[in-house]
Amino acid sequence: MTTAPDLGFTTLRWADGKLLLLDQTKLPQIQEEMEFETIPPLVDAIQRLCVRGAPALGCAGAYGMVLGVLDAEGREQWSAALKESASLLSAARPTAVNLVVGVQHILNFGEGLLAAAAAASDKFDVDLATAKLLDQAIAFHEADTASCLAIAENCLPLLHDGARVLTHCNAGALATGGLGTALAPLHLGASRGMNFQVYADETRPLRQGARLTAWEMARNGVPVTVLPDSAAASLLASGGVDFVIVGSDRIAANGDVCNKIGTFPLAVMAARFNVPVLVLAPATTIDPFCPSGAEIPIEQRAAEEIFGEDGAREGVEVYNPAFDVTPSSLVQHIITDHGVFQAHGKGCEAWQSYVAGLGNDRA
Amino acid sequence: MTTAPDLGFTTLRWADGKLLLLDQTKLPQIQEEMEFETIPPLVDAIQRLCVRGAPALGCAGAYGMVLGVLDAEGREQWSAALKESASLLSAARPTAVNLVVGVQHILNFGEGLLAAAAAASDKFDVDLATAKLLDQAIAFHEADTASCLAIAENCLPLLHDGARVLTHCNAGALATGGLGTALAPLHLGASRGMNFQVYADETRPLRQGARLTAWEMARNGVPVTVLPDSAAASLLASGGVDFVIVGSDRIAANGDVCNKIGTFPLAVMAARFNVPVLVLAPATTIDPFCPSGAEIPIEQRAAEEIFGEDGAREGVEVYNPAFDVTPSSLVQHIITDHGVFQAHGKGCEAWQSYVAGLGNDRA
User: Fold this and answer.
1) pTM for this entry
2) Dihedrals phi, psi of A164, to nearest 5 degrees
3) Model confidence over A47-77: pLDDT tens digits?
4) Which residues of A are known to be catalytic?
5) Which of A44, A92, B297, B302 sits in a 20 to 30 Å window from B348, CA-based?
6) Min CA distance, A199 vs chain B (Å)?
7) Any idea what DSSP says for residue A179?
C-alpha cells in the first residue's frame, strides 16, 4: 500500500494524549497547531472553523470523543462522559453531517464495549476501554487517509507530467484527514516528482481557494496561481488549462454533482473549451437515494459573507447560495476511492451498477 | 427632449465657482461631496478613485481645466495656467483615455480663444475667456448627460415592467456625468414608474457591483440584490433573470465586446438559459479601427487587488486580467446613443454601416 507523502503540514493528529489541530483561521499567515485536552475548547475551535471540511470534521469528532473520556473514573463516569461528549460535539456544527458520523461511530463503539463488559459480567477496565476507543478513532482517521490515497491513485494515471489544473474552493488536505480529494493526486504526483501548475479560483465569498488551496499547494512546493472566479473563463479560453478538478459535497445517483457555488459555470466554460472536468470524492459523498441534482436542497448563506467588509447595507438584498449543481453531462469522470466512473453516455453502466451497489450496502 | 431624473445623488457638478465630486471612496457608508477650487487636490482625488468611470473622468478633467485658470491674471498667466493644468490633469491617471479626452477638449477650446484674440489683435479678456471655458466644460458634461439619456431611451422599449435585470460591475450614474450606460434605462424607467428587480454581480476583485451599483440603485429606490459572481449561473438557471445588461470599455468593429472581467462567462451562461445580453455604451466606446476582440490588449492588474486582505503571499502567483472579451455572437443587441444594433447574423448590415460611418467621422 502507498504511504501518504509529507506535505509540510498536518491538518490533525493525536500525540501524547492530546488532539492537535492546524489552526486554519491563522492561515495563510501563520502555521500553528492548537492542542486540545478537553472538549469545550475543541467545540469552540470547530465553531470558529479552525478545522473545516467534511472528512476532517469527522476525524476531529472521533478524536474529540476520546478526549471526553480521558479523565473518567469508573464505568458510570466513563459511560456518562461518552454520551455527554457525543452530545456536545454533535451540536458544535449542526449541519456538518460528517462531524456527526465520526462522533456516532465512536459512540457506538464505546457503547459496544460497555455492553460487552456488562454481558460478560466483567469488571469494566476504564483505561483499557479508553485505549480501545483511541485505537478506533485512529482507525477512523486512517480510513479517511486511505480513502484520500485511493482517490489519488485512481486519478493520477489520467494526469500527465506538466499538467495544468484549475480547481475551485478547497478540497485538499486541509479539508480531510489525508491528502484531500481534488488536490490528492496533485500532492501524490508531486511527491513522485511530477510537475503540475495549479490554478486556484479565489472562491468567493469565503475565499477558500485564495486562503487555503493556495497555501497548501505552495506549502508542498507545487506552483500555484490564484485567480478571481470570473477570470477562469479567460484562462480556459487562452488554452492554459488541461484539467478542471474539483471535489463534491454530494453526488446524485445520476451523476449530478453538488459542489461549492461556481463549480457549475466553471464546468460550462470548461466544456466550451474542451477541457475535461474531473470530480474527485470518496464513495460516501455519493447519495444513491437522491435521483438527481434537482432533489438536492441548496443552503442560502448570510449577507455578512458578502458585505462583511462594508457592514450592513440598507435596501440591498443578497443572493448567496452555498452550492450549485453541475449536470452529469458536463463531468467527464467521477473518481472515488473505488475507481474511475463515467455517469453519462456510453459507459455509464459501470456507474449505475456501482451506485446500485452502494444503495444496497446502505439499505 | 427628456430631462434626466433626480437619482438622489450627483456624481459631479459645478456650483459657486467650485467643482463638487461625490466621494466614491466613502460609498456605500457615507454620501459626501468634496469641493475643489484648485487642481492639486483634484489630481489627488482622481488618483484615489474618489471619481472613477471613463465618462465621469472626462467631465472631471474638463471642469478641472476651468479650476486651473480661475486665478490667472492677464493673457500670459491664463495661457500658461491652461497648459500647466492640462499637463497635471492628464498625468493623474495615465491610462484613463477619457480623462485626457475631456482635458484636451477644453485645452483646444482655450487655445482657440487665445488664437482668435491674437488674430484679431483684441485685448484678451481673462474673465470672459474663463466664463467661455466654463460654458464649454458644462457643454461637455451636458453632452455626456445627453448621451446617457439617449442610451436609456433607446433601450427602454426593449424592457418590460417588472423586468429582472442582472448586471456586472458599475456602468451606472456613478461612472458618468449622467444616468450611466448599462444602468441608465433602469434609472429612467424607474423615474417613470416602471418596476425592476436588479441583480448586481459583486464583481471581484474590486467589488464595484457590491459597493457602487447596489448603492446607486438603492439610492434611487430600485430593488437590488447583490450576488457573488459565481452565483450568477445558478440565478440564470433558476429562471430568475429576464435580461443581462452590461456596459463596455471597448467594442470592436465586429461587435466583440471588451468589458470588466467576468462579462464573458456571464454571457455564456445567459446564452445557455436563453436570456438576452444587452451591451449599452456611448458610440465613443466603439473602435471602428479594431477589427475584433482578439486585437484588444488585456491589462493584467496587481496581486494586491486579490490578496489585499491577506498581505503578500510567498510562492503564490496571481492571474488577474482586468477585462475579458465577449464574442459578438453572444450579444443580442449593442445599444448606443444612436440606436439599437445587432452585430452578428441577419440584420448586422445596419451595424456594419454604422461602424463604417464612425470610422469615416474619425478618420
Assistant:
1) 0.94
2) -105, 115
3) 999 999 989 999 999 999 999 999 999 999 9
4) 249
5) B297
6) 9
7) S
State the nearest Cα–Cα gap between B307 and chain A, in angstroms. Answer: 8
Q: Are A299 and A206 in contact (CB under 8 A)?
A: no
Q: Where are the beta strands (DSSP E) in chain B?
A: 12-15, 18-22, 33-36, 163-167, 196-201, 224-227, 243-246, 250-252, 257-260, 277-280, 286-287, 316-318, 323-326, 333-336, 339-341
Find the distance separating the first CA and the last CA of chain B, reported in whole Å: 30
Gap from B146 CA to chain A (nearest CA, Å): 29
Three-state helix/strand/coil letters over A304-318: HHHHCCCCCCCCEEE
**Is residue B296 within 8 Å of B241, Cβ to Cβ?**
no
Q: For residue A321, which residues of chain B lie inside 8 Å, CB to CB?
A: 231, 234
CA distance B299 to chain A (A): 12
Please say whether the beta carbons of B56 and B178 come within 8 A.
no
Structural domains of chain B ordered from first start: 12-150 (1.20.120.420), 153-362 (3.40.50.10470)
Contact B325, B257 (CB under 8 A): yes
Residue numbers in B near A322 (CB within 8 A): none
Given a contact cutoff of 8 angstroms between Cβ atoms, the answer to whether A169 and A259 are in contact is: yes
* Subunit contact A321:B234, Cβ cutoff 8 A: yes
What string of DSSP letters covers B50-68? SS-SHHHHHHHHHHHHHHH
Q: Do A225 and B317 touch (CB under 8 A)?
A: yes
Segments of chain B scoring below 50 in pLDDT: none
Nearest residue to B254 via CA among B288, B297, B296, B298? B288
What's the pLDDT tens digit per position in A154-168?
A: 999 999 999 999 999
Grid coordinates in use for B86? 492640462
A250 by DSSP, 3-state: which? Answer: strand
Q: Is residue A1 pLDDT above 80, yes or no? A: no
Among A234, A261, A316, the residue with its CB nearest the CB of B230 is A261
Give B232's contacts in chain A (Cβ within 8 Å): 265
Would you say B352 and B342 are in contact if contact means Cβ atoms under 8 Å apart? no
**Region A333-337 average pLDDT:** 98
All residues at 6 or more sequence positions from A233 whose CB lies less than 8 Å from its CB, including other chains:
A269, B262, B264, B265, B268, B324
CA R_g for chain A = 21
The predicted structure's pLDDT at residue B147: 97
Closest-CA residue of chain B to A168? B230
Residue A2 has pLDDT above 70, yes or no: no
Which chain B residues are Cβ-neighbours of A167 within 8 angstroms? none
User: Is the Cβ pair A318, B226 closer than 8 Å?
Assistant: yes
Side-chain-side CA neighbours of residue B15 (13 Å): 8
Q: Give the closest of B205, B233, B235 to A228, CB-based.
A: B205
Pick among B196, B224, B230 to test the A interface (most A CBs inside 10 A):
B230
pLDDT, tens only, A169-179: 999 999 999 99
CB B13 within 8 A of CB B20: yes
- What's the Cα-to-Cα distance from A193 to each of A298, A304, B102, rounded to whole Å? 40, 42, 57
Contacts of B234 in chain A (CB under 8 A): 261, 264, 298, 321, 324
